[in-house]
Design goal:
Layout (H helix, E strand, L loop, with lengths): L1 E5 L2 E5 L9 E6 L2 E5 L16 H14 L5 E2 L9 E3 L13 E4 L5 E6 L3 E7 L4 E7 L1 H5 L2 H13 L7 E4 L13 H4 L8 E3 L2 E2 L1 H11 L7 E3 L14 H4 L5 E7 L1
Parallel strand pairs: 5-8, 6-7, 11-14
Antiparallel strand pairs: 1-2, 2-3, 3-15, 7-10, 8-15, 9-10, 9-11, 12-13
């Protein structure tokens, strides 16, 4: 991934998307905002840890630096619901873990800490998707379901779709003591040591099986828990904020 900065806002971009100037994308890092977590954090989720005023300020500042004004931010539910965003739907109170759209000039924003976020782009049909995927998302294979919606609603060919997966929990940090109850047997071969799973490889396997070409897939393979100066992590910090990852079509 490539790190960039503008007016105190830092973000990461995928190398795989650099040849597509018609899209804006990135994962915002934790500094550059006004949230007290402990200070100057770019938290993008309202809750016990932060107030609405701070979060709205942070989102506006971040997307403005990316030359965008409108955004759509679903309420994450850790499931497999995918929202097909259409023009003038508004920006609030939609529950789901993914959004897919061909609408231009809207920042599709997903919030996350330890979970993966995958950005999809079909350059032939000019369609994007922003997909939140924690372990529950892998269990229900939200990635394959997103690709199915690309095909059904936009006529996309999976071989044309590019995918980037953000920093997230790495295998050394992804511990599942109850994995025999929580995870399907096909995941058990992805252990790297007792009770620790490589969800980067699980996601790659699911995406390749769904038709994504390996040379169209970029996985950051950066563990967010390993660098608290840049990343939020619930497992690492417990009381923590959430990053925002965006994708938009110009």
């Amino acid at each position: 991934m490539i790190q960039k900065e503008k007016n105190g806002i830092e973000w990461l971009e995928f190398e795989i998307f650099q040849s597509f100037p018609e899209i804006i994308h990135g994962t915002f890092l934790r500094k550059g905002g006004i949230s007290p977590l402990p200070k100057n954090d770019l938290n993008m989720v309202i809750g016990k840890i932060d107030i609405e005023e701070n979060v709205l300020h942070n989102i506006k500042k971040a997307i403005t630096e990316r030359e965008l004004t409108k955004y759509f931010k679903p309420i994450i539910v850790h499931g497999d619901k995918i929202i097909h965003y259409k023009k003038d739907m508004g920006s609030l109170n939609y529950e789901g873990d993914a959004v897919i759209s061909d609408v231009k000039n809207v920042a599709f924003l997903t919030t996350h800490a330890d979970c993966q976020v995958a950005l999809f782009y079909d350059p032939k049909n000019k369609v994007v998707a922003n997909v939140h995927c924690g372990w529950r998302g892998n269990v229900c294979n939200i990635y394959a379901k997103t690709i199915s919606l690309f095909k059904k609603d936009f006529g996309s060919n999976p071989k044309d779709i590019f995918v980037g997966i953000t920093p997230s929990l790495g295998p050394d940090s992804f511990e599942f003591k109850d994995y025999k109850i929580l995870l399907p047997k096909e995941f058990w071969s992805f252990t790297i040591k007792p009770n620790h799973f490589d969800f980067w490889e699980i996601s790659q396997s699911q995406l390749l099986k769904a038709g994504i070409q390996k040379n169209h897939l970029e996985i950051a393979r950066i563990c967010n828990k390993s660098d608290p100066s840049k990343f939020f992590s619930y497992r690492g910090q417990k009381v923590t904020g959430r990053h925002g990852t965006i994708i938009a079509i110009k």
